[in-house]
């Protein structure tokens, strides 16, 4: 990186607790033009891509964040000795429904899953993966839920449009097509001996 602005942006992103959006960077660096900041950011991204080190600068959750390269995951977990968060099947199903159908109410989630989801939604709220977006304008004014910025960061998504499509998910389950060997045909006139026709008893 050559420019001082690139170094400033690098330091801001490095010290940020979560992904830093271009709008926030522009707000912090009001003495620079937006185009200058975008250009310097592109230079910084290019620098980290080219150096091939242990971490990279990636766009995630509507902002920019330094992340370790996925290929080094196994080595990193040896060092920090923490296990990745595990989700129950019900939590994953509920989170997927909220992600793809948001904004959505608890009753709508329960209708789709067929079971009570109050505890699961509460757990997802506590983990900051789901957030309350407001209240639906219907009788009872139930809360409506959507995914959070933390959801995007944890799953490494730039935005909700980056969620895999149904077709992409279904492609993961496609079994490889192996060539089938044709069944051997028996000679039609050949008689297969039965016990009584065997030459020895």
Topology (SSEs and partners):
Layout: H1 4-15, H2 22-28, H3 34-51, E1 55-60, E2 63-68, H4 73-80, H5 89-101, E3 104-105, H6 106-113, H7 118-126, E4 130-135, E5 143-147, H8 149-154, H9 166-172
Antiparallel strand pairs: 1-2, 3-5, 4-5
Looking at the overall shape, the CATH architecture of the largest domain is: Orthogonal Bundle
Q: Roughly how many Å apart are the termini?
A: 90 Å
Strands, total number: 5
Biggest sheet features: 3 strands, antiparallel
Order of helices and strands: HHHEEHHEHHEEHH
Tell me the CATH superfamily of the largest domain.
Winged helix-like DNA-binding domain superfamily/Winged helix DNA-binding domain
Q: Approximately how much beta-strand content do the residues carry?
A: 5-15%
**Count of the domains:** 2
Provide the CATH top-level class of the largest domain.
Mainly Alpha
Which terms would index this structure?
201 residues; alpha+beta; Arc Repressor Mutant, subunit A; 2 domains; three-stranded antiparallel sheet; two-stranded antiparallel ribbon; 9 helices; 5 strands; 44% helix; globular
